[in-house]
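Submission sheet (multi-component)
Chains listed below:
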Amino acid sequence: MSATTSFSPRDGQIAGSVPDTRPEGVTAAVARALEAAPRLASVPPAQRSDWLRGLADALDEHSEELAELADKETALGAERLTGEVGRAAGQLRFYGEVAREGSYLGVTLDEATGTSPRLVRVNRPLGPVAVFGASNFPFAFGVLGNDTASAVAAGCPVVVKAHPAHVLLSVRLAEIATDTLDRAGAPYGTFSLVVGQQAGADLVRADGVAAVAFTGSQSGGLALWRIANERPRVIPVYAEMGTINPVVVTRAATHRMEEVARGFVGSFTLGAGQFCTKPGVLFVPSGHGFPRAVGDALAEAAPDPVMLTRAIAESVTGGLGDLFAAGAKIVRKVGGTHAGWSAEAAVLTAPIAALRPGSRLLEECFGPVALVVEYDTDEELLSALTRLQGGLAASVMTGDGTDPDAARLVDVLTRSAGRVAVNDWPTGVAYTWAQHHGGPWPATSNPAATSVGAAALGRFVRPVAYQSAADEWLPPEARSGNPWTLPRRVNGRLETRTAEPS
Amino acid sequence: MSATTSFSPRDGQIAGSVPDTRPEGVTAAVARALEAAPRLASVPPAQRSDWLRGLADALDEHSEELAELADKETALGAERLTGEVGRAAGQLRFYGEVAREGSYLGVTLDEATGTSPRLVRVNRPLGPVAVFGASNFPFAFGVLGNDTASAVAAGCPVVVKAHPAHVLLSVRLAEIATDTLDRAGAPYGTFSLVVGQQAGADLVRADGVAAVAFTGSQSGGLALWRIANERPRVIPVYAEMGTINPVVVTRAATHRMEEVARGFVGSFTLGAGQFCTKPGVLFVPSGHGFPRAVGDALAEAAPDPVMLTRAIAESVTGGLGDLFAAGAKIVRKVGGTHAGWSAEAAVLTAPIAALRPGSRLLEECFGPVALVVEYDTDEELLSALTRLQGGLAASVMTGDGTDPDAARLVDVLTRSAGRVAVNDWPTGVAYTWAQHHGGPWPATSNPAATSVGAAALGRFVRPVAYQSAADEWLPPEARSGNPWTLPRRVNGRLETRTAEPS
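Outcome: structure written.
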């Protein structure tokens, strides 16, 4: 019988092993989820919000134990991981509050007119969601991360596939989740975990699964997307994959070179560069010595990265080789001295002319590796930006309010990125109402979807319009009396929580 | 050089012929659209609303001429077609008003807190949209139909592929559109038309195209969806295809048998049954003689259908053969007496046990053909409903407010349909705020998208979050002063059009 084994990245030793879920186990998990689905869909959002708050409290309670276990499997550090447990708990509460507020239901009511019938549209949960969490955020994008939290908030049961890089943590989180949900009275089947690569593929193929949420590599996300597209009933795959996230330094910002260099190094080496929002390329005005300044800042910061997995550590080395082959030159490298899954952090530079269509320099190199590219003219900068793949995030580092290049660069960057930061680095994704963590293909599989922020719930619902239906035959959210006091649009006019007597 | 030829369905004679667009013509149309895109995206929605109103006025002005030309190519009848011109004009005005109202921009603003930066999210237009209209609604879903109107309203230029069934009308509509938009001052490239099947495929492959909107058959929609999925940069395809739309008659409604039978015949023979919302199967309590009643109503109505194209006429004959092979029996057939693309209208019946998984009886038969299926038990009814493909619409015909089966059937039908009508037939799709014209795969390629109603604009935008950006570097819709007085969510709270001084 096959099993999934995780390793301690610091020494490469086995951390533990978990038996893979057999095909009948996947079938059973999906069947449980399908049975739970109608009840999840019919309880008020406030009820699901309470369950999510219970999960958040449970995370906080077990914070120390969980961070310790996660550190053993990921080497991301106890402090960062303890913070991330808190973040995941905050997310669970946030998505619950978003559900409770009720705008995600999109309730829209048009009274009958002489020419059109009465119509009420509400968003209904899609059904069981298969969740594939990320290696690099074992809590925030893990078993109880953004995808699970927003899916349950929207009324969908989840079946999570354990990440092989932290399979022990995944199992422990699943125990906590199952126990907490059970005690809170959530339907049996609201949450399940499956283990193993084959189980993951079986899950995406399972007839009862209604959507897939994935955070991770392009190869992994696209593999699931292809499987889903070959199903008899094709289902949406929300794959958040990430690409290279460009940062542009304007001419008016060159006087901040040292600060920018330090900030860039801090951002691209954060978490050993294992962020989907890692800035992979810094475009800088030529002639100011930016490449060397960034190299010096790297030497000063002197990170000594340990990667999450052997495969990632190897891909950093391989990626560096690819970048050299594509015309990049090393500016500075440091680290790589540990046992286990150690890697070097490196700053490279390349002539802007080398960023030709199809060049490897235009693509992400996962890990603590970044490129500094000097530009002379606006034309060559804009032309290079146009050639980059669509991205999750981009930044521009500007001068003061009179910077003549800022507005145009913000506009240009929005054409290929889901988030544009000004004088902020792209790493760091707040979970708020306005957040958008998505972007054009191939950063994600769906340019309009976000995996962070209030709109994340929107991935897991579809509208249903009820035509000429009497109130008593409708679910509460669609009734004219508005028993759940939801924000609605009535006859075209937005109403904010003005309940009529029901 | 190849050409597209349309025919007069009533006699099968050639109506006219138009040269196909060469590859360089497609490239030029996309280049024009790409050049127009930033200007379309940056004008206030009210400006685009004015352009759409101009198009609507132009349709009304040319109503008689257009309906006559359409009738020559489609045989749908001058009265219906004149009405449809008016509907298309109304749609153009409606989508413009939706844009002007501004909720579609989804403006969301979170002020900075101690832990998170200032974020403003707004929906931005995707860019050039390729539009493939339907054969069966030459105006409402045609060159200036729902897709074109909602795409332009959302700020996207369109390149429309002419439908071969009414290519003369497509060219005439394009002349009117180009002329009207030009005179209104819309950017050159806002609207283009291409002709020919190869041009359509080239269009979906064109790098500059950002999304595809399609209304038509499953084979056509899925072909475009596959092409789009093979692009280096995959783009969303919003294909509205339609399946069989079930209608259930409850036990408490059997006393209305004659009325239901007449209504069903009226609905499934409307437009010669060439509606994507055509009710394809009527589930009725057994033992009341429903099949014969529907057959009698068909004989009484005595339609004599002429189909849009030779291919559709042949598919009706072929579809009938398939249904017989799958276990259906004829109850009554009439018509089929014309020259040209004539077809028989037919009522069939089949034992409910014949609706096995994979049976042809579960799928759409386009044209004036419908199935009446008797049920004995709730179990066999629910089991058959579960086996149907996801659909655009479903109906339930009930008794009075005490009907014990109504609420449960409404709930069951919402699980596989985008719209559920009570005591209304599924044909007829009002364009209002609450409308949803979409549904689970394979009724559409995207279960959350609608091609009719205010939410249709949402297909053609993607969110962008601006982080820590000064107001003067943001587009007007994202500025804190709200210069366009848009409905917004600020710090989590919905605000309806409360402009601050800017």
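Remark: Residues 78-101 of chain B form the longest helix (24 residues).
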